[in-house]
What does this fold into?
Amino acid sequence: MELVRAKIKKTGETVVMEKVLKNEETAYFSTGRMFGADEVEILEDPLKSQRQPDPLEQLPQEMMQMVTGVVNDFIDRSDAMYWQRQRVEITKVLINKLDLVTQDPIAICNLADQYIRMLKNYKQ
It folds into this structure.
């Protein structure tokens, strides 16, 4: 149901009407009577005029930039922590698969880093 504020052209009365589709044509219903689109003059949509302001629109620009920066930093930290956990898991798998006696632990970590770089490039 969509409501609109409209003026009835015949009487000059301003009322809130329900906008309906009747036989694929727009009609307006109010006070127990159906009005055609040519019988009324649409003044405003009362739902839009009573719309609550968005709290983010009321913030100063500096505050918005600060909030955006904090959120972006959180996303970056979260992403870095994810890849750090993946590096640990890949290193564990490599240690289990490769013989540590013949392999240098630093070489295994470097190999894990190479896998991480490949995964990051694949992800993008």
